[in-house]
Design a protein that fits this description.
Blueprint (H helix, E strand, L loop, with lengths): L3 E14 L2 E14 L3 E5 L6 H8 L7 E6 L2 E2 L5 H11 E4 L11 H9 L8 H7 L15 H13 L5 E5 L7 H18 L2 E6 L10 E6 L2 E7 L5 H5 L2
Parallel strand pairs: 3-8, 3-9, 6-7, 7-8
Antiparallel strand pairs: 1-2, 1-4, 4-5, 9-10
Amino acid sequence: MPQPVFIVEALTKVYRTGDVEVHALRGVDLEIDAGEFLVLLGPSGSGKSTLLNILGGLDHATAGRVLFRDAELTAFSERQLTLYRREHVGFVFQFYNLVPSLTARENVSLVTEIATDPMRPEEALERVGLGARLDHFPAQLSGGEQQRVAIARAIAKRPKVLFCDEPTGALDSKTGVRVLEALVKVNQDLGTTTAVITHNVAIGQIADRVVYFADGQVARVEENATRQVAAAISW
């Protein structure tokens, strides 16, 4: 049986601005298994991004706890969180955050130069279908190609987990297909535990499980007995 990479227990996050409190998470319980492909669905403000930010070491919980491979992530110091992000976590966001003056290869090298056991930038780019675009600058790449460079950059350090926040949100459907193909390939070939936030219900078909969020809570969890990768990627 797969072992949990994350165990989330009664996780709560409250943002305070003056006298105003916003409850982003309200006692979330969740387990994410090693090698799993998880899709998080729900309306804006339902808590999806807040959960991934805490799991990724980018934000702090107000209450509750998160275990990462038996270590209590929510008790980590800032230095421990920095090392955790560097060694174990890859991030892909809606906007690509590439350095415009660097080539695709050089953008990926930014990560490989500080990682402990990186793959070669060329290998990372080949894995996302950009082996022929190594020396192109972001301005010479389409939006989908830039996002795949961002995925290559995220996976080049061989992270244990890959968090993707609306990775196809800025792309048209055809371009988004190539990005989803790259994420599925990374999950299947490298066994990287992958969590993807999206508003597109059809994308849930590529997941092992779909977690539905509402009002800061897990509304329900659905398992896909057979991942319908081809059908979902044709959206």
